Amino acid sequence: MGEKDIAEKVLEDYNDVFADIVNVLLFQGEQIVKPEQLEDKTLRSSYKADGKLREIVRDVGKNWNQDTIRIVCLGIENQTDSDADMPLRVISYVGAEYRAQLIRDTSSQNGGDGDIMSTKKRRDIKRYPVVTLVLYFGYEKPWSSSKSLLDRLTVSDALKLYVQDYRINVFEIAYLTPEQVKLFQSDFRIVADYFVQKRLNHEYKPSPQKMKHVHAVLQMMSIMTGDHRFEDAYNDAIQKEELNMCEVLDRVEQRGMEKGYAAGRIAGRNEGKIDAFYHELGMSVSEIAEKLSITESEVQKILDESE
């Protein structure tokens, strides 16, 4: 599992965030899905290929239940780049979920896997649908790959009539309107707002909205943007339960100023190298020492004095 997948899952796996994403993207902000109605589900399923048992792993999945009745199985898949094979991936997840409904019904009858359920019993069982949302976070260009199975397959005209199509639900987060972003009520609004602003303005002006899941948001922002100062800012404020992005960026700026001050003192002792160093802020002590041709102890001493 990649680092980006882990960060996205940490935030989206919270029931309030998951329900919020579904309510805005599927129901235009109407509060249809309640966090307390969501149930965590197993994200791994197995299949056999080439004589070997293999696994399918979803990003985030929840069962939506109402009054003990399962309404739907919901899944979220995250993409930072267009993936031409996404229709194949999603249909494999969905197929595994439907297959699981059949397995659960047949495996428990009279205590044996080989038992066959009667036609009447099978007909009386309520089946539930599987819905997958693909969240695309790219902001430099829209999703450009296939959104349906037939778009991805090479099919002759003679066969096309008999090949069933399957369309995926791609939601381009950076291409939501500002009005749609305002519909989010959870921490996901902060994430969506960031990507929309980056697409529209190529810069980000933070909102005063408080974050409930501070670490999850900052970790996601850190990995998705490649700027690990977001997570550094969280580590500085680990005792504080709630922050907004304005406070986070203030901390980021303050840390940068402190590092810049220390860097200037170090670079000032090494004339002719100050410009090169200032472009390398955030390096480790050993990297700074190597860059400036001084000892690590000298670097550490000046950094300690600046605190």
Protein architecture, described:
With 307 residues, the protein is of the alpha/beta class. Helices cover 47% and strands 16% of the residues. It is built from 14 helices and nine strands. The strands form three sheets. The chain has a five-stranded mixed beta sheet with strand order 1-4-5-6-7, sandwiched between helices. A two-stranded antiparallel ribbon has the order 2-3. The protein has a two-stranded antiparallel ribbon with strand order 8-9. Strand 4 and strand 5 form a beta hairpin. Helix 13 packs across helix 14. The two termini are 38 Å apart. 24% of the residues are buried. About 9% of the residues have low confidence.
Helices and strands in order:
Layout lengths: L2 H10 L2 H13 L10 E3 L3 E6 L2 E6 L2 E7 L2 E11 L6 H22 L11 H6 L5 E7 L12 H4 L4 H4 L8 E4 L5 H4 L6 H14 L8 E2 L2 H12 L3 H8 L6 E2 H24 L5 H5 L6 H8 L3 H11 L1
Parallel strand pairs: 5-6, 6-7
Antiparallel strand pairs: 1-4, 2-3, 4-5, 8-9
Helix pairs in contact: 1-9, 9-10, 10-11, 11-14, 13-14
Question: Could you provide a short overview of the structure?
Answer:
The protein contains 14 helices and nine strands.
Helix proportion of residues, in percent? 40-55%
Please state the oligomeric state of the protein chains shown: single chain
Count helical runs: 14
Globally, the shape reads elongated
- Name the helix and strand elements from N-terminus to C-terminus, one letter apiece: HHEEEEEHHEHHEHHEHHEHHHH
Count of strand segments:
9
Distance from N terminus to C terminus (CA atoms, Å) equals 38 Å
- Overall SS class: alpha/beta
Strand coverage percent:
15-25%
Q: Using only CA atoms, what is the Rg?
A: 25 Å
The biggest sheet, with number of strands, parallel, antiparallel or mixed sense and barrel status, is: 5 strands, mixed
